[in-house]
Design brief:
Structural class: mainly beta
Mean pLDDT: 75
Number of helices: 2
Low-confidence stretches: 1-37, 284-344
Shape: flat
Keywords: Signal
Signal peptide: 1-37
Helix content: under 10%
Protein name: Bacterial Ig-like domain-containing protein
Distance between the termini: 62 Å
CATH class of the largest domain: Mainly Beta
Organism: Deinococcus aerius
Largest sheet: 17 strands, mixed
Strand content: over 45%
Length: 512
C-alpha cells in the first residue's frame, strides 16, 4: 500500500448551508470529541491493516480505535460501529478504505459487508440498516459496479436529495440511483481464510493432488503449499491443511483450495487461502478462542463453507445463514437452483481437474444447460450424462479404456455452437509391487524398510496400520522404483503395509 494522502469524501448530493458548515467542521471534531469517544473499533484483523493517526498510518494487528481512517491491504477487518446509538458491524474487505465521520464510518473505496443495526456513509450518502439487516457495499474501480445491495432485512439510503428504501434482494446503483433486483454470485467474504505461518498438508484420504504452474502430483503429508498452489480432492476423498501458527481446514470431496497470497504483517507471515470449488470444514482443536485461523464471515469451533453457496455467519459460532435462513453447520443448506442461461449466452466448456493416472476414464464437465457433451477417444465416443439437480453439469463415470496413455477430446454442442478441449490421460490398472520388506525391532521401535516399483507414477503413498493407528509416507520413484524406511512404535500386533499409486491401485503386505 502506498502512503498517499487520505482522500476527502466527495459529497454526492446538494447540502444546505448548515449541513455544509457541519461537514467543513468535521476534521476539527476528529481531533477533540471523536478522539475521546472513538465509536469505531477494529475488533478482528486478518492480514495487513492500518489506521490513520494525524498524518501517519500505523499498522494494527488486533483491537484498535479508528478515529480518523482505516485501510487494508490483502487482509480484512471486522469493525464494530457504535455511531448514532446503533451497535452493528462492518467487514472491511481487501484493498479497501474508509474514514471516520460524525461517529460513523464513511466508506470510500473497496468492498464492505454490513450487519445492522448500523449507520454508515457511502461516499457521503447516509445509509442506515435496521436490526437483523445485512448488506454489501461495492465501491470498485475499473468499471466495477458501485452499489449497495441488501442480503437480508431492510435499509434506507439518502441519495440525490431523496431517500431510497431497500429490502432483501434489491440493489441501488450509486451513480444513477436506479433500483434493481440483486442475485449474489460472488460472496467474496465467505470463502477465504487467513492464518499465520507456513501452510502444509496434514492428512489425506483417497485421491488428493497438489497442482500449480508445473502440473500436479499426489499430495504428500507434510508438503508445503505456496502461492499459486491448488489442493484438489477427488471423489470420496478429503485433505486437511494446517497453519504453523495453529488452525486446521478440511477440504471435502470434490473440492479445490488455492493459496491466494502471502503477506508480512505485525503478526508474522500470513497466508490467505481461497475456496474455488467444493466445501471446507474448519476444525479448531478444543473449540476455544484464540486460534490464528479465521474466516472473514464464518467463525466458530466448527463451520462449513461452500464456494458456490452464499454463506454468512453474523450470530452464534457454528451457524451458517443461507439466503437469510439460519442453519447449523451440521445441516448445510441445499444447493440453490441454478438459473437457466439466457437465449443468447455463449457456449462454455470447462473440465474439472483430471488425475495424471486413472483406472478408468472419469470426467466432470461444466457447460450450458441442455448442451450435448461427449468424450472421444480414437474412434470411440462416450456421452456425458447431465447431473440431476445441477443444470450445466455433466459427468462420465468409469469408461473402460486400455492401459496406457490416451488423448481425449471433449466436445460440447448447443445453440449452433461447438466447443472442444483436449486432454491427455494415462489408464493404469496395474498395482505397485513391494519387495525386500523387512521389519527390525529395536527396543520399543519398529523399523520398516523395503522397495516399491510402479510403472505409472512418479510417487506412491505408503500406509502402515498397527494397533489401531495409521502411519503414512510418500515414496518418490526414479525410473519406476524407490525405497522406503518407516519408523514405528513396536506393539505386539501384526503390521499391515499398503502401497497405493496415483490411479488408486493398491498392494499389501502383512508383517507379524
Amino acid at each position: 500500500m502506498s502512503a498517499a494522502p487520505w482522500p476527502p469524501a466527495a459529497p454526492t448530493r446538494r447540502r444546505s448551508r448548515p449541513a455544509l458548515a457541519a461537514l467543513l467542521a468535521a476534521p476539527l471534531l476528529l481531533g477533540t470529541a471523536a478522539a475521546q469517544t472513538a465509536p469505531l473499533v477494529a475488533q478482528q484483523v486478518l492480514g495487513r491493516a492500518e489506521v490513520l493517526e494525524g498524518i501517519t498510518w500505523r499498522a494494527i494487528s488486533g483491537p484498535a480505535p479508528v478515529r480518523q481512517g482505516l485501510r487494508t491491504g490483502a487482509g480484512r477487518v471486522w469493525l464494530e460501529s457504535n455511531g448514532g446509538g446503533r451497535s452493528g458491524a462492518v467487514l472491511v474487505g481487501p484493498e479497501s478504505r474508509l474514514r471516520a465521520y460524525r461517529d460513523e464510518a464513511d466508506l470510500q473505496g473497496g468492498q464492505f459487508l454490513l450487519r445492522g443495526p448500523v449507520g454508515t456513509h457511502v461516499l457521503g450518502n447516509h445509509l442506515v440498516l435496521e436490526g437483523g439487516a445485512q448488506a454489501r457495499v461495492d465501491l470498485g474501480t475499473n468499471g466495477a459496479p458501485r452499489r449497495v445491495a441488501l442480503l437480508a432485512g431492510n435499509a434506507r439510503l439518502a441519495l440525490a436529495g431523496g431517500v431510497v428504501r431497500l429490502n432483501a434482494g434489491r440493489q441501488v446503483a450509486l451513480g444513477s440511483g436506479a433500483v434493481s433486483a440483486f442475485a449474489e454470485t460472488d460472496p467474496w467474504y465467505a470463502a477465504q481464510f487467513t492464518g499465520v505461518g507456513r501452510v502444509t498438508v496434514q492428512a489425506t484420504r483417497g485421491p488428493v493432488y497438489v497442482g500449480g504452474d508445473t502440473g500436479r502430483q499426489i499430495a504428500r503429508i507434510g508438503a508445503p503449499l505456496g502461492t499459486g498452489d491448488r489442493l484438489i480432492t477427488g471423489g470420496n476423498a478429503w485433505a486437511e491443511v494446517g497453519y504453523a501458527g495453529g488452525g486446521y481446514l478440511r477440504l471435502q470431496a470434490g473440492g479445490e483450495l488455492g493459496v491466494l497470497g502471502t503477506e508480512r504483517t505485525v503478526l508474522g507471515h500470513e497466508v490467505t487461502l481461497g475456496l474455488t470449488r467444493g466445501t471446507v470444514l474448519n476444525v479448531v482443536q478444543g473449540g476455544g478462542p484464540g486460534t490464528l485461523l479465521a474466516s472473514s464471515a464464518v467463525r466458530g469451533s466448527l463451520f462449513r463453507v461452500g464456494a458456490a453457496r452464499l454463506a454468512q455467519t453474523f450470530g452464534d459460532p457454528g451457524v451458517v445463514a443461507s439466503a437469510g435462513t439460519a442453519r447449523t453447520a451440521a445441516t448445510p443448506p441445499s444447493r440453490p437452483p441454478v438459473p437457466a442461461a439466457p437465449a443468447g449466452a455463449a457456449l462454455t466448456l470447462q473440465i474439472d481437474p483430471v488425475p495424471r493416472a486413472l483406472r478408468d476414464l472419469t470426467l466432470g464437465v461444466s457447460s450450458l444447460p441442455g448442451a450435448r457433451v461427449v468424450a472421444r477417444v480414437g474412434t470411440r465416443t462416450f456421452p456425458l450424462t447431465p447431473v440431476d439437480g445441477q443444470p450445466g453439469r455433466f459427468r462420465l463415470s468409469g469408461a473402460a479404456l486400455s492401459e496406457g496413455p490416451h488423448t481425449v477430446q471433449v466436445r460440447a454442442e448447443g445453440r449452433g455452437q461447438l466447443r472442444t478441449r483436449l486432454l491427455k490421460v494415462t489408464i493404469d490398472r496395474t498395482p505397485p509391487t513391494l519387495s525386500g520388506v523387512r521389519a527390525e525391532r529395536t527396543g520399543r521401535v519398529l523399523l520398516l524398510s523395503g522397495s516399491v516399483r510402479d510403472a505409472g507414477a512418479g510417487r506412491v503413498d505408503l500406509t502402515a496400520n498397527l494397533g489401531g493407528e495409521s502411519f503414512r509416507q510418500s515414496v518418490l520413484l526414479a525410473g519406476g522404483a524407490g525405497t522406503f524406511r518407516l519408523t514405528l512404535p513396536a506393539p505386539g500386533t501384526p503390521v499391515r503395509l499398503t502401497v497405493r499409486d496415483e490411479a488408486g491401485n493398491e498392494a499389501h503386505a502383512v508383517l507379524s
